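Thread title: Can someone regenerate the structure for this chain?

I was given the following input by a collaborator and told the matching structure tokens would be attached. They weren't. Posting the sequence so someone can regenerate them.
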Amino acid sequence: MSRGSIKEVRLITTLLRGTQYKMERLRQLSTTPSTSYILQKLEDVVHEMGLKIKQHEENIKFLKTQKNGLDNSILDMQVALGKYQTESESGPENEELSHVLSEQETIEQILRYEKSAAGIWCQLKTRHGTQASHLPLTKDVLGIVAMLGKVDDDNLSRLLSDYLGLETMLAIVCKTYDGIKALETYDKEGYINKTSGFHGLGSSIGRSLDGRFLVICVENLRPYGGEFIADDPQRRLDILKPRLPNGESPPGFLGFAVNMVSIDSVNLYCATSSGYGLRETLFYNLFSRLHVYRTRADMLQALPCIRDGAISLDGGIIKHNNVFVLGKREVDLKFPKSFAKSNLPQDYFEIERQIKEMKWKKERTVEDMQREQALLDHARFNFGIKKEEYLKFLAQNSSYTRQHSFKQEGSA
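Best answer:
Regenerated them for you:
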């Protein structure tokens, strides 16, 4: 190779090395480690937020589909119930009439206590019917203890009422503690605000509320933790039968009071947001394992196995801790008589139960949709902020890179 050729190769190599250096320098200016790292982190965050938004949107879509399915199922079952009811209209009506009269009698007994919270509630229900349950103040009220259970035998009904006492029979039953707080409010000094709550409601219908009254929150009651009797439409509790020290069943034992109260199918399931019914919450806490015996003699003979009290059909009452109740019966208020709907098929009660359960699931689904929507709105808001931050950083970095590129080219 000639000297001229060697010089030419060296010149080309030098020029190539200079160009590569310039190119590498430009890359360093535009993608310094700190800038590149920040840019990559912002991209990752924006991408992750986008995935979260997509996930919330898919969750809402799924929940809407689930809610629509429940709506359709509830409607179909309500149509089936309407068919049963239409078919049963031509059947015997004596039992239904007796049931209505018994309920009306209990309501009239409650209305006699016109200055009580229960009296005000019944007055409100009498005037406004089902609309009373939709008022902001009372929408959380399930009812009054005396109206939430029914008993077949009139004598047993009076005995159970006497055992509970008038104050408990007239107690208002609420689903949640928030519902209880709405019934009575206070001023800054701690005095009752007579213009709101049940006090204000009483004044609005001409019934001033006087004295104290009980309110029971079923959501906070500790539920029965055992099993239920299999295939029992009333979901009676499967409580172990009492045994005397010799291992035998006490003579005259008729059953547990908590299982002798009939409950409307509406309240058998999902009376609380946790899915519990009134039997395993309200009535189990009121009666616990209260024994029912045929006679006082039977009850006294069974004392060794009585822990949570007992009553007998001839008027005997033993409270907790072996406290005997003597004297004349004082409580006139009693539970209404139960109505078995004997002319309706067993499927009727099962469909009622399923409707109640599906309505409960629908309420939970709607709550889940509201939570997902709130999360989606929050995610979209954060995504907008982070996206703007990313684009701003990208624009600033691009401007910085162009400026340095021009300077480097000029100096070169």
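Strands lie at 141-144, 172-174, 215-217, 253-256, 291-293, 310-312, 317-318, 324-325.
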